[in-house]
Amino acid sequence: MSALLLGASATAQAQSVPVYLDESKPIEQRIDDALSRMTLDEKIAVIHAQSKFSSPGVKRLGFPDLWTDDGPHGVRPDVLWDEWEQAGQTNDSCVAFPALTCLAATWNPSLARLYGESLGEEALYRNKSVMLGPGVNIYRTPLGGRNFEYMGEDPWLASRMVVPYVQGLQSKGVAACVKHYALNNDEEYRHQVNVVVSDRALHEIYLPAFKAAVQEGGAWAIMGAYNLYQGVHNCHNATMLNKILKKDWGFDGVVISDWGGCHDTEEAIKNGLDLEFGSWTDGLTMGATNAYDNYYMALPYKKLIREGKYTTKELDEKVRRVLRLFYRTTMKRNKPFGFLCSESHYDAALKIAQEGIVLLKNETSPGLPKGEGLLPLTKEKLELLRKSSPLGGDKRGVRILVVGENAIKMMTVGGGSSSLKAQKEILPLDGIKARLAGVDVDYARGYVGYTVQSYNGVTVGRSLYETRSQAELTAEAVEKAKQADVVIFVGGLNKSDHQDCEGHDRQSYDLPYAQNEVIEAILKVNPRLVYVNISGNGAALPWIQKVPAVVQAWFIGSEAGEAIASVLAGDVNPSGKLPFTWYASLDQCGAHATKSYPGTWREDYKIIDEEYKEGIYVGYRWTDSRKIKPLFAFGHGLSYTTFELGKVSANTQHLTPTTQMTLSVPVTNTGKVAGSETVQLYIAAKDSKVARPVKELKAFQKVYLQPGETRNVTLTIGADALSYYDEATSQWRADAGKYEALIGTASDKLSTKYAFKLEK
C-alpha cells in the first residue's frame, strides 16, 4: 500500500512540474510553454539590456539574468552597473590567453579546442553565460586596429580554427558570440563605413569563417558589426541576418548587437536583431534617464505593438531565440564546474603561446659556424659568441643586453574590450632573466612609447615614467650594446590608440616611436641582434637584411615572458606559421594598391563608402596575382630543425562531385632536434572559366617528428575545395577540368604537386 502511495505521489509531483521546467521534454516544447506564459512586458524586457553586460531573465518564471562579458582572450573584469569603470571586485582576475592571431599562428585546431574549453571554465566560475568572442573578421589591411583579435587573412584557416574554439567553449555551457558579423575591417570609422563588396568576395573571403562557426561549430550567438552593408547597419541588416544567417545557414541562435550598434527600432524589429545592448548608455559620451527602457527594442517597440503597427509575431521569434539561449546556458542544470586561474589554464595559455610564436628569420652571425643560425641561444652557442666577441674571450661571463619598451610593458592592459585584469603577466625581460639564469642580462629602455599607467581601472605592474631624452636613451642602448655578446631588441606595437587597439586604426605601417633609429644605431656597434616583434600586425622592417634573427611573438598573455624566453633559449622549438602575408610595404597590399582604403566620404560626411576593389584577391591571393614578393609569405615559419617533403601520392586522379581525394606526402625531420612542421595544401584551377586566385589554401596538418623520423601526412579534399561562388546563380560551383594540388610548408615553399581532374 505504501509503495502505491509513494508511486502516486511521485507521479503527481512529476505532473505538477510545468513543461518549461521539465528537463525530460524537448527544448522546443519547453520554449513553447514558456513563451505562452510570458506577458508582453516580460517579452520586451528579455530582448534588451538592463545593465552594461546583462539582460534580464523572467524572475516570475524562474529564468535568471543573462550575463555576458568581453572575452576575446580572457574574461574581462567586472564593471559598474552602468559605467565602464571597474566594480572593484577582488575575485575577477583571470588568465590572459594569447590573442587570436597567435592562436591562428599555431595552425593547430586541437589548441583551439583547448583554448575554448579553458576560457569556458573561467567564464563559468565568473557566472558568465555568453562570451563575446571569438572574432573571425578577415585581415584585409595591416593597418586594421583590431586585427590582433582575429584569425588572419585566409578564410579556410580561420574556419578550421574557429570551429573547435566554439565547440570547446560551448561544451562548458557557455555561449560563444562570434563577431563581428560581418565586414568589420575598419575601426577608425566603424559606425560610418558602408562596405561595397562583390557577392563573390563576400561569400568566398569574408563569410566562410562565420558560416563554419554556425554550421559546424553550432554557435549559439552572433554579434552584429558596427559598419553598414548595402547602406544598412549590420546589427539590423535584412540581407546579412534574415537571409544569409538565419535562412541560408539555418542559424537558430541569438543575434546580439554590438554595444551601441542598434540605430533604428523598425529595422531592428524586421531585420533580424534579437538582443540589444549598449544603446545610449556608453557611459562615456552620452546617457539617458531610464535609458534601458528607452532602448530601440524597449518602450518604442512596445508602443508600436500597442498602436497596432506590429503584432507580436516578430517579438515572439526574438524571444524564442533568447529562451533557447537560456536553456543552453543559464537553465542548463548539468553544467560542469568552473575554475579560475587554475594551473591547467596557465599551462594551456603557455602551450598556445609557444606554438604560435613564429621564427621569421634565423641566419648566422659573426662568431658562429657557417650555416648556424643565431637562435637558439643555447649555452654552447652563447659561449661561442662570448669567445668570438670583440670584447675578447677573457674569463668574464656571457653578457646579453635586452632593449625596448615592450620588454617591460604589460600587454594585457589596454586595447579596448580585450583589456584584462590578469592575475599575472610575465614580462619578456623577466622571462629572459629567469630562463638564462647565470647569464649577465642587462636592460636599456631604448625608446619611450605609451606611458599611461592604467586602463579602465587596471594599473600596469611596472612604472613606465621616463625623463631622459631620446638621444640619451639611444646613447645608453648603443653603449651597452658595445659591451654585449648578444642584443635582444623587444619592440613592435602596443595596445594604445592608433596601434593594435579597438576604436582606431594604425596611421602608418612603420614601427612607432624611435625603434628603427635605435636598431640602426645598435647594428653599427653590434650586429648580433635578435629582433622580437610584439604585435598583432606586420610592420615595415627597413633594417631586415642586417638583422640575423627575427621572431614574431604576438600579444600572448599571462605567460608571455616565459613563452618568448623558452623559444629564444631553444627549450621549445618554434613551430608557428604566419596567418597573414607580411608585406614589405603597404603598396603590396591590395586594399592600398587599389587606393580603396579607407574609402570616400559622402557630401554630408555622415557615411564613408569603402569599395573593396581588390575583390577576392586578399592577402597572398593579391601578391600571387601581381607576382609580388612580400617580406614574409603567408604560412611562413622556420624551425630549429629542418624538414623534407617527399613525393605526393593520391588515391585517384579523377575527383567527382560525390567522391573525395586523399593525398599523402612523407615528411622527414632531417635535422638534429625534434620539432613540428605544418604541411599545407593549396588548390590551383588550371583551366577555369572564371578568374581564380593562383592558389587557395584548402587543407593543412601539423606533424611532430623526432630527428630522423618520417611520417606520412594525409590530406583529404572534396569537390567543395575546388568551388567558387557563382554570382549569376548565387550558388557555389565547381567546374569540371584540370586542377593541381600544391603541397609544401608555406605559400611560397610548395615543393610537390599533384595534377588531377574534376569529372562531371
Explain what the structure shows:
- The chain has three domains: 314 residues, Glycoside hydrolase, family 3, N-terminal domain (TIM Barrel, Alpha-Beta Barrel); 207 residues, Glycoside hydrolase family 3 C-terminal domain (Rossmann fold, 3-Layer(aba) Sandwich), CATH 3.40.50; 120 residues, Immunoglobulins (Immunoglobulin-like).
- 27% of the residues lie in helices and 19% in strands.
- The strands form seven sheets. It has a six-stranded mixed β-sheet. Strands 10-17-16-15-11-12 form a six-stranded mixed β-sheet, with helices on both faces.
- The longest helix has 17 residues.
- About 1% of the residues have low confidence.
Q: And the CATH topology of the largest domain?
A: TIM Barrel
Given this structure, which CATH class of the largest domain is correct?
Alpha Beta
User: Largest beta sheet: what is the strand line-up?
Assistant: 1-2-3-4-6-9
The number of domains is 3
Helix content: 25-40%
Backbone CA Rg: 27 Å
**Total beta strand runs:** 30
Instruction: Figure out the total of helices.
Output: 20
Question: What are the salient characteristics of this protein?
Answer:
TIM Barrel; 3 domains; 27% helix; Immunoglobulin-like; 760 residues; alpha/beta; six-stranded mixed β-sheet; single chain; Rossmann fold
